[in-house]
């Protein structure tokens, strides 16, 4: 053994070839934390000092190669000044460059996922061979960052400017065929031949058949393009990246700028430029939010894992009651991910609608070449339409998705319960009705919970699992497991009007209604909130959700929280509803909808909207963007805090991720609670006080006041 550490080891194989192996003890995957980098440095020194080593292969003792840097270490490190972050990058890079400069050939054997620092380690080798099942990429821009272990330096020198810009600025995770075509990989082999292939390549280098030193020299020198071509390549790609990324995501553009700055430099000088650029983006609020988002996502997965351990049953057959657009969407998603599903309704016409919805969604996948026709046929065959309960005795989980009416739902749920086997789980897809109240119609309320999908089911990642007063842990566990099996991100919440997402969303709509009452222009509000980062402004969002649906849900919220969600004026959405302007579903709401060239609804301004709302609002006036943002965001954020305070949601991470997954909260702002943190709890309470005269939705919750008084934040 040449070197043995807790994360990295090096041993001599035959013919003077050493194996440098990553195998981080106590972890299921390899990642670059401080310990791994320190270990790698020591291993490199030992390899250099051992005169018997003639070449080295780099391998992994895990099922993956290296998943990247340990992001849990970032949050503290990014609080340091820029120069200290840059210093950290450079010290880590000294280890990678020391490996790259070893006086013998190196070949990386990538057995699985190699992302971020994992691919940067591979780029430090002279050659890269991957198993056919491997995937590689530099996804740092998705965390508001760019590669900091030499990725922006080595990749353009290995694969050229255009390809490197695509790989780094888009942050994709690529299969081996693309990686081989673009030149990131030198060869692809079957997994069982990977190590032998790497050794064979080292031997070819030692035999003089391959000039590894010439290959290495390309990474040490400036880019080979002439200066003018170099400038044109970066300016063209930089403009495209800026257009694609938008102003709210600075990391991709910063990465391109850094690559351009160091393109004419040797490796070591270029690494200094990369380190300074990395430190700069690490200090942006977007990086703070997006790194936080990643950690919150991990926290949600951990929480769901804890739920599943409480008795999740195996799901071999599911059923959905109600074959409308929602029922068809649920059936499609279940079948797509491999769980056969029965779709029951009381009319053939409804079943046809549900099957057509599933067929349409599958046909789109075939059209986009994400599925072949044969697979589409197999998937569709996993959905069995029926008018009776004949096979319900074999079903493991049933999702009720009938009309949003409490009495009808209770009747349907009580009826189906009698056809289910012992231990089968029953769920309602209600978006507003109390799970505890629905459960009163059941003989086994412990086997019942809410399973709230968001529309369209195929697109929206969130599923709320709602625990009623009598819901058992095993029922929650089974539904969390089923949601994950369907490819969704479940978040467990407790029962209350609107549950979590709608309870938080409707104060946001309430803020919009108050702005309109006071004379704001709905188009101006939409534009400000879209610029803030929302995929669509509140008026447009209401049209997409369905104004009839919104008015119904608003009534539920007003009944549940009359102190702050019952208003003493006629809301403009009610005006739209009374005039049968329901939004996209019937072609007119706040906006009119026309089909574009692709057959999708396109919004256009409708002057009649202004005429209809005029009797119910103040004279039109302009509001500053900051005031619009404050009046829209305070109600949403304070209600999120109340949900945490009332134990509707288990953690700040779950609350934030629900808003990201469920209503498109701007990811680069990290979620409502992280947004409060970015302003400061004390400052946010002051903002609440400034607008408290507008009503209860603007009042700071006691939890927030207490945190402000103690100088606390939601994410430390």
From TrEMBL:
<dbReference type="GO" id="GO:0006635">
    <property type="term" value="P:fatty acid beta-oxidation"/>
</dbReference>
<dbReference type="GO" id="GO:0070403">
    <property type="term" value="F:NAD+ binding"/>
</dbReference>
<dbReference type="GO" id="GO:0036125">
    <property type="term" value="C:fatty acid beta-oxidation multienzyme complex"/>
</dbReference>
<keyword id="KW-0413">Isomerase</keyword>
<comment type="similarity">
    <text>In the central section; belongs to the 3-hydroxyacyl-CoA dehydrogenase family.</text>
</comment>
<comment type="similarity">
    <text>In the N-terminal section; belongs to the enoyl-CoA hydratase/isomerase family.</text>
</comment>
<keyword id="KW-0442">Lipid degradation</keyword>
<dbReference type="InterPro" id="IPR006176">
    <property type="entry name" value="3-OHacyl-CoA_DH_NAD-bd"/>
</dbReference>
<protein>
    <recommendedName>
        <fullName>enoyl-CoA hydratase</fullName>
        <ecNumber>4.2.1.17</ecNumber>
    </recommendedName>
</protein>
<dbReference type="InterPro" id="IPR008927">
    <property type="entry name" value="6-PGluconate_DH-like_C_sf"/>
</dbReference>
<keyword id="KW-0456">Lyase</keyword>
<keyword id="KW-0511">Multifunctional enzyme</keyword>
<comment type="pathway">
    <text>Lipid metabolism; fatty acid beta-oxidation.</text>
</comment>
<dbReference type="GO" id="GO:0008692">
    <property type="term" value="F:3-hydroxybutyryl-CoA epimerase activity"/>
</dbReference>
<dbReference type="GO" id="GO:0004300">
    <property type="term" value="F:enoyl-CoA hydratase activity"/>
</dbReference>
<keyword id="KW-0520">NAD</keyword>
<dbReference type="InterPro" id="IPR029045">
    <property type="entry name" value="ClpP/crotonase-like_dom_sf"/>
</dbReference>
<keyword id="KW-0276">Fatty acid metabolism</keyword>
<keyword id="KW-0443">Lipid metabolism</keyword>
<dbReference type="GO" id="GO:0016509">
    <property type="term" value="F:long-chain (3S)-3-hydroxyacyl-CoA dehydrogenase (NAD+) activity"/>
</dbReference>
<dbReference type="InterPro" id="IPR036291">
    <property type="entry name" value="NAD(P)-bd_dom_sf"/>
</dbReference>
<dbReference type="Pfam" id="PF00725">
    <property type="entry name" value="3HCDH"/>
</dbReference>
<dbReference type="InterPro" id="IPR006108">
    <property type="entry name" value="3HC_DH_C"/>
</dbReference>
<dbReference type="InterPro" id="IPR001753">
    <property type="entry name" value="Enoyl-CoA_hydra/iso"/>
</dbReference>
<dbReference type="Pfam" id="PF00378">
    <property type="entry name" value="ECH_1"/>
</dbReference>
<dbReference type="InterPro" id="IPR012799">
    <property type="entry name" value="FadB"/>
</dbReference>
<feature type="domain" description="3-hydroxyacyl-CoA dehydrogenase C-terminal">
    <location>
        <begin position="498"/>
        <end position="593"/>
    </location>
</feature>
<dbReference type="InterPro" id="IPR006180">
    <property type="entry name" value="3-OHacyl-CoA_DH_CS"/>
</dbReference>
<feature type="domain" description="3-hydroxyacyl-CoA dehydrogenase NAD binding">
    <location>
        <begin position="318"/>
        <end position="496"/>
    </location>
</feature>
<dbReference type="InterPro" id="IPR050136">
    <property type="entry name" value="FA_oxidation_alpha_subunit"/>
</dbReference>
<keyword id="KW-0560">Oxidoreductase</keyword>
<dbReference type="GO" id="GO:0004165">
    <property type="term" value="F:delta(3)-delta(2)-enoyl-CoA isomerase activity"/>
</dbReference>
<dbReference type="Pfam" id="PF02737">
    <property type="entry name" value="3HCDH_N"/>
</dbReference>
């Amino acid at each position: 053994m040449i070197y043995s550490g807790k994360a990295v080891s090096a041993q001599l194989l035959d013919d003077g070839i050493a194996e440098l192996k990553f195998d981080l003890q106590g972890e299921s995957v390899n990642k670059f934390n401080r310990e791994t980098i320190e270990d790698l440095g020591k291993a490199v020194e030992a390899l250099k000092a051992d005169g018997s080593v003639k070449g080295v292969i780099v391998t992994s003792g895990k099922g993956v190669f290296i998943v990247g840097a340990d992001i849990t270490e970032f949050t503290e490190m990014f609080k340091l000044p820029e120069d200290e972050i840059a210093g950290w990058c450079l010290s880590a890079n000294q280890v990678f460059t020391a490996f790259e400069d070893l006086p013998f050939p190196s070949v990386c054997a990538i057995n699985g996922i190699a992302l971020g620092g994992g691919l940067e380690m591979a780029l430090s080798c002279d050659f890269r061979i991957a198993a056919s099942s491997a995937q590689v990429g530099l996804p740092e821009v998705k965390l508001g960052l760019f590669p900091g272990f030499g990725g922006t330096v080595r990749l353009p020198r290995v694969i050229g400017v255009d390809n490197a810009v695509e790989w780094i600025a888009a942050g994709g995770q690529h299969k081996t065929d693309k990686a081989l075509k673009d030149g990131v990989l030198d060869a692809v082999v079957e997994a069982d031949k990977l190590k032998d292939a790497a050794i064979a390549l080292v031997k070819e280098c030692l035999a003089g058949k391959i000039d590894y030193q010439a290959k290495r020299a390309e990474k040490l020198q400036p880019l080979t393009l002439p200066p003018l071509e170099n400038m044109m390549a970066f300016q063209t790609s930089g403009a495209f990246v800026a257009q694609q990324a938008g102003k709210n995501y600075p990391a991709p553009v910063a990465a391109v700028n850094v690559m351009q700055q160091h393109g004419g430099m040797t490796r070591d000088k270029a690494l200094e430029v990369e380190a300074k650029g990395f430190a700069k983006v690490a200090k942006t609020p977007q990086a703070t939010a997006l790194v936080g988002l990643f950690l919150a996502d991990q926290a949600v997965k951990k929480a769901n894992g804890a739920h599943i351990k409480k008795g999740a049953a195996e799901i071999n057959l599911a059923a959905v009651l109600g074959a409308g657009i929602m029922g068809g969407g649920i059936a499609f998603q279940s079948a797509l991910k491999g769980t056969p599903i029965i779709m029951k309704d009381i009319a053939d016409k409804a079943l046809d609608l549900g099957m057509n919805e599933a067929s349409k969604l599958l046909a789109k996948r075939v059209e986009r070449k994400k599925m072949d026709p044969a697979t589409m046929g197999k998937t569709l065959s996993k959905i069995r339409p029926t008018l009776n309960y004949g096979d319900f005795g074999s079903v493991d989980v049933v999702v009720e998705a009938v009309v949003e009416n409490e009495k009808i739902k209770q009747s349907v749920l009580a009826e189906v319960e009698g056809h289910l086997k012992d231990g089968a789980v029953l769920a309602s897809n209600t978006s507003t009705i109390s799970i505890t109240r629905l459960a009163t119609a059941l003989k086994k309320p412990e086997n019942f919970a809410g399973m709230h999908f968001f529309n369209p089911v195929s697109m929206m990642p969130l599923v709320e699992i709602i625990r009623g007063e009598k819901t058992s842990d095993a029922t929650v566990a089974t539904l969390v497991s089923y949601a994950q099996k369907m490819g969704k991100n479940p978040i467990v919440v407790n029962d209350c009007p609107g549950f979590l997402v709608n309870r938080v969303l409707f104060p946001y709509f309430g803020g919009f209604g108050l702005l309109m009452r006071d004379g704001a222009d709905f188009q101006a509000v939409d534009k400000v909130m879209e610029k803030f980062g929302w995929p669509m402004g509140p008026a447009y969002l209401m049209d997409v959700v369905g104004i009839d649906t919104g008015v119904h849900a608003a009534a539920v919220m007003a009944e549940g929280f009359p102190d702050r969600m019952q208003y003493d004026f006629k809301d403009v959405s009610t005006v739209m509803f009374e005039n049968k302007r329901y939004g996209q579903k019937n072609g007119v709401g706040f906006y009119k909808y026309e089909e574009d060239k692709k057959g999708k609804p396109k919004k256009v301004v409708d002057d009649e909207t202004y005429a209809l709302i005029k009797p119910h609002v103040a004279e039109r006036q302009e509001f500053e963007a900051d005031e619009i943002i404050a009046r829209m965001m305070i109600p949403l954020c304070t209600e999120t805090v109340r949900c945490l305070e009332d134990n509707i949601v288990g953690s700040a991470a779950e609350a934030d991720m629900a808003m990201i997954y469920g209503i498109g909260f701007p990811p680069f702002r990290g979620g409502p609670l992280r947004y409060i943190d970015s302003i400061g709890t004390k400052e946010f309470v002051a903002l609440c006080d400034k607008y408290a005269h507008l009503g209860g939705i603007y009042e700071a919750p006691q939890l927030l006041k207490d945190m402000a008084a103690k100088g606390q934040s939601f994410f430390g």
